[in-house]
Specification:
The protein is an all-alpha fold and about 250 residues long. The protein is built from twelve helices and no strands. Helix 2 packs antiparallel against helix 12, helix 6 runs parallel beside helix 8 and helix 9 (about 155-160) runs antiparallel to helix 10 (about 170-190).
Length: about 250
């Protein structure tokens, strides 16, 4: 086994990261979102922000093969395309801001953003503005920026879609396509920035295995008639992850 792979396995907290990513995979499989909200706060305990962003983006790329084929035919691809178009230029801006911030401050931003998203979901907040091209582009831009700064690619667009007057199946499919495209874009941006920590690249590849398997399990569990149960389970897991990842503990 390459030395970089052995170094990845020896990283502090490896088994916690593996367990967390597996749980995140199940939630992503049945809900279409939530993996970053679960993984990023916990991973921040053990790794610096740029490593967390790299790993969650690399691992999420594994979702493309598992989830996109089914989602492709169910999604509103025009709307997803607009979101992706707006997100592309803001991802590098988010990465620049992440570089400029202290790691602990980034963890607080993650905790605040994830906690705020959770509160909005629990309270049933709904996006009430008329959804035109301008609003769609603004949502995509905000999602790209937050993804680059924190690795949390999903919350902005998830809140947007949960407020939409679309079926659960379409919302789930749109979210899957958008997050997959955003994760690919983040990986490309990190590559252009010269990211070459091979132990982290190996860690992303290793964690992609339990994530992929767990995601397939979650997808098999998905049935539209149980949407409320899935939602409650996802919110509970996200809440636990946010609490565990608060910088006050470490």
């Amino acid at each position: 086994m390459p030395d970089a792979a052995l170094a990845a396995l020896a990283l502090p907290g490896f088994w916690w990261l593996a367990l967390t990513i597996a749980v995140a995979g199940v939630v992503r499989g049945f809900s279409g979102f939530g993996s970053a909200l679960i993984f990023v706060p916990v991973a921040g305990i053990f790794l610096p922000p740029v490593h967390v962003i790299a790993i969650i983006a690399l691992v999420e790329v594994a979702s493309i093969a598992a989830l996109v084929p089914r989602a492709w035919g169910q999604a509103d691809r025009r709307q997803v395309g607009l979101l992706v178009l707006a997100a592309l230029p803001t991802i590098p801006l988010g990465l620049i801001v992440m570089d400029a911030l202290d790691a602990t401050l980034v963890r607080w931003v993650v905790a605040g953003f994830a906690g705020g998203t959770l509160a909005a979901l629990v309270l049933g907040w709904r996006f009430s503005a008329s959804v035109g091209v301008g609003i769609t582009l603004a949502i995509g831009a905000a999602a790209g920026f937050m993804g680059g700064m924190t690795g949390l690619t999903g919350p902005v667009v998830v809140l947007f879609y949960l407020a939409a007057r679309q079926s659960a199946r379409t919302v789930r499919a749109n979210t899957i396509l958008f997050l997959g495209a955003l994760d690919l874009a983040i990986v490309v941006n990190l590559g252009l920035r010269g990211f070459d920590d091979f132990s982290i690249l190996w860690l992303g590849a290793i964690l992609a295995v339990p994530y992929f398997i767990a995601m397939m399990v979650g997808q098999a569990l998905f049935h539209p008639e149980h949407e409320r149960l899935y939602r409650r389970a996802a919110l509970g897991v996200i809440a636990l992850s946010v609490l565990v990842g608060l910088p006050v503990w470490t």
